[in-house]
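User: Please fill in residues for this 124-position structure.
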């Protein structure tokens, strides 16, 4: 299977970023473009450890991201492949583009938990 970013069927956008994605078998595949710095920690508040529990694998096409674990931080730059272990948060630089692969069920469970947390907040 293969697709270009613009052919992906799911589209999600915030002011800071655009995600174009699909589920391919057991994997969730996402092309991500960050127009502004993006810090996912506010979206993770209230989840276990205030961190993402889903593992991810990917490749940074352009830009940089910082991965924040409870006990250390990692920097990932353009041209590098990565694995994010469960228990992380991210801060992505403006101008970053990447492709990411996640286990479909773990990703869906994570997004459901994030959406429920956001709905339960005042004004959510």
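Assistant: Residues filled in for all 124 positions:
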């Amino acid at each position: 299977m293969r697709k270009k970013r613009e052919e992906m069927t799911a589209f999600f956008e915030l002011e800071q970023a655009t995600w174009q994605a699909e589920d391919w078998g057991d994997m969730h595949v996402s092309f991500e473009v960050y127009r502004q710095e993006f810090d996912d920690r506010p979206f993770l508040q209230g989840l276990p450890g205030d961190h993402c529990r889903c593992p991810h694998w990917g490749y940074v096409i352009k830009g940089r991201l910082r991965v924040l674990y409870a006990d250390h931080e990692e920097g990932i730059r353009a041209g590098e492949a990565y694995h994010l272990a469960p228990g992380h948060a991210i801060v992505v630089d403006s101008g970053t583009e990447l492709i990411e692969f996640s286990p479909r069920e773990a990703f869906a469970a994570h997004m459901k938990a994030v959406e429920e947390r956001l709905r339960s907040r005042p004004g959510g």
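For context: Residues 11-120 form a domain with the Jelly Rolls fold (CATH 2.60.120.10).
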